[in-house]
TrEMBL record:
Pfam families to which the protein is assigned, alphabetical: Response_reg, Trans_reg_C
Protein name: Response regulator transcription factor
Domain Response regulatory positions: 16-129
The entry's DNA-binding region: 137-234
PTM sites of type 4-aspartylphosphate: 65
Source organism of this protein record: Alicyclobacillus mali
Gene3D superfamilies assigned: 3.40.50.2300, 6.10.250.690, Winged helix-like DNA-binding domain superfamily/Winged helix DNA-binding domain
Amino acid sequence: MPGDNRAVLYDPSKVRVLVVDDEPSIVKFLEFGLRREGYAVDTAEDGVEAIAKARESMPHVCILDVMMPGPDGFEVCRMLKGMGNVAVILLTARDAIDDRVKGLVGGADDYVVKPFSFEELLARIHARVRNQFPSLLKQQEVGPFVIDDARKEVSFRGETLKLSSTEYELLRYLLQNHGLVLSKAQILDHVWGYDFNGQDNIVEVYISALREKLGDRDRTLIRTLRGQGYRVDLP
């Protein structure tokens, strides 16, 4: 998504991370660091153990070494992806470009090159949780907006907007897809539901109401693309 200005807030204790590496020192380092950050961490030292533990309690994120005895990281990644929604971050050697390409083509979501900084790994975990597990988010920062799902509120430049429940759902949908053109049909299906039998001009009515509350009189924030739909452009 272009111009990704989002940061996320979530409870790390609700995120299950599986660390898989045949080097005990790396496993201990990552386990200690991630537990200190509040994550629920499980570990494995080979592919067989990794799959067994994943079946017990499916992790949200798997930090997975490529080079391991038995099933290697590529095979473990394929098996994990077949089990459900899990974000796989591969650990690769600095000069193993082919491995990175093979991993991404094979279904991995990201990779980190050894040696790596713990801060970089955390940033990549944040990105994967944000993109693949939005239900875990408490708040999302989208440019000058803050979406608070717990309170069903949206703040704009520090001020909480007074929104109806439908206005909240519509603005949330637009913001989470900022930079993308959303058709009226897409908006109706997502906000009003597939069984909505009303007029599609209701979208125009609610867009107009949002623009009024945002002070978007020149329509530079919520843009209308004639014949296509609407797009949020962040300042």
